[in-house]
Amino acid sequence: GVKVTATQVSVDGRTLYFVSDRTDTPNIWKMSADGSGAAAVTTFTSDGIRYPQMTRDGRAIFFEYDSMNLL
């Protein structure tokens, strides 16, 4: 099934940001707080997004990305 992790709420409370593998590769997604309008924010084609964190002002999301998939 689809995994959703690292959910964060925007500063104004209207948007949710989360990591999802709904397109087979984990990427950051956003959607309205009511659950509508899901859209990809990143479009990486290999695994590796980790530790997303929204800035305090809500203008950016920082994350680690490792395309090497080292275990």
Q: What are the main properties of this structure?
A:
two-stranded antiparallel ribbon; four-stranded antiparallel β-sheet; 71 residues; mainly beta; single chain; globular
Describe the fold and architecture:
- The protein is mainly β and 71 residues long.
- 0% of the residues lie in helices and 44% in strands.
- The chain has no helices and 6 strands.
- The strands form 2 sheets. A 4-stranded antiparallel sheet has the order 1-2-3-4, with no helix packed on it.
- Strand 2 and strand 3 form a beta hairpin.
- The chain is globular, with a radius of gyration of 12 Å.
A few lines on this structure:
The chain has strands at 4-9, 15-20, 27-32, 39-40, 49-54, 61-65.
What's the shape? Answer: globular
Radius of gyration: 12 Å
Based on secondary structure, the structural category is mainly beta
- Count of helices? 0
Percentage of residues in helical conformation: under 10%
E-strand count: 6
Question: Oligomeric status of the shown chains?
Answer: single chain
SSE string, helices as H and strands as E = EEEEEE
Q: Work out the strand percent.
A: 35-45%
Strand order of the largest sheet: 1-2-3-4
Distance between the termini: 22 Å
Major β-sheet profile? 4 strands, antiparallel
* pLDDT < 50 runs, ≥5 residues: none
Give the overall pLDDT as a whole number: 87
Task: Present the secondary structure layout.
Elements: E1 4-9, E2 15-20, E3 27-32, E4 39-40, E5 49-54, E6 61-65
Antiparallel strand pairs: 1-2, 2-3, 3-4, 5-6
